[in-house]
């Protein structure tokens, strides 16, 4: 940003001011401060970069992908990377692996986004209501949470998918149903530390009702730790989706879901390592990116840090 | 006429074997427009009386009335329009994610005021904060400034009674005087009734006309400010308290 000697403050100065002049200004300044903290964390920026890259790839898949992800070529099956313009080789039906990975990023993002909205949403609602109201409500909601937690995650997801029928949407639903209890636990724990604080007492003294206190005063303080947890969980979600795909209960062939691709490549893993390895690397990279970003977000969003 | 009336107030925490009686048989009156102090050591139950009055502690028995109206187990919005409270620690009493504007705006909205923008500016001016502070977050404010915001929030519903729970004990000595003077001015200006809790006798002698001394949940003595300055106490505990205070702060009786 160039420093000029005009009387009007530059955008940077405007954002870094200690004395915001409007609601919008204050919010923008707070956001900018958060961005500066995040930017100073190199690893988090690498994670963010990878995820933005994935987003672009998913958005422009038809233009980027060199070939049709579904076009089969049985003559050129299991071609090693680099042959005939197949940069990452071909799979057992002669489909270009790179193109399949590029199209598969759409499915991955779809699953991740839906789970990232549903699971923490349900968890936040259950956890904060349970923590704030307490008593019987708390006991009942937390025992339900315990029941969900007691099942191994993949087994429960399997049961749901088996009952609902195979497919991506049902896989998303099943993963969300198994993923919300930890969020509810976190939200409840946060709520318990917040509910007796003076600032909650203070707003009670203004005659605020529980609904307002939960949504306007408790949620903003819980959401940051949930967001961090979501980004750390995303790797697990991708793997769970892959696991369901691997068992044939997630995305159905021929759709190029990364987990399903690994499942397919498993049969040739000794002779044609690239068929399973390439989607494995993709899952690994994206999981790592989410983890790195989550670590950085924790520094930015922790309310105890105060953002300054 | 007495604005606040407490008769045989008992407050306890826990049930059965765990029951702790925090306040026992407290009876006192605060006249309208007066400033009344509750003094005692930590754990003597003085803050608990305030918390029971505003409904933050539901386990109490006895009689409490505000402006002649008897209080039941629930507090209505009309009650909070009349009685407001300033908390002890300004670092804990402001929501860390809400700007000053949000804090005051929400309070005004909850009480159904109109012309909120103008009122926020007026409130900030009342407590000696300029409009520059309006959009700041708590972490951008000092302790004294935070306490001023907390006082502005308590004044927003235009109450007649202000409960002060050790409003200066978390602040630097230099800032304490500023906040106390602000509170004294506001009382004059808005014709407020104060019920103030403190363990600092100098503060109470400066702010209040009458004082109740508490020990182990019981009111052991009522003192007027003259008695206090002259150190005329009948109860040995009160005498001890007065002596220890003057020992630490020899100028307390003159300066107040």
Can you describe this structure?
The complex is a heterodimer of chains A (308) and B (256). Chain A is 71% helix and 0% strand. With 308 residues, chain A is an all-alpha fold. Chain A has a single domain, classed as MetI-like (MetI-like fold, Orthogonal Bundle). Chain A is flat. The model of chain A has no long low-confidence stretch (mean pLDDT 85). Chain B is an alpha/beta fold. Chain B has a single domain, classed as P-loop containing nucleotide triphosphate hydrolases (Rossmann fold). Chain B is 38% helix and 26% strand. Chain B has 10 helices and 10 strands. In chain B, helix 3 crosses helix 4 and helix 5 packs parallel to helix 6. Chain B is globular, with a radius of gyration of 18 Å.
Mean pLDDT of chain B: 88
What series of H and E elements makes up the topology of chain B? Answer: EEEHEEHEHHHEHEHEEHHH
* Structural class by secondary-structure content of chain B: alpha/beta
If strands are numbered along the chain, what order do they take across the biggest sheet of chain B? 6-7-8-3-9-10
The number of E-state strands of chain A comes to 0
User: What is the assembly state of the chains in this entry?
Assistant: heterodimer
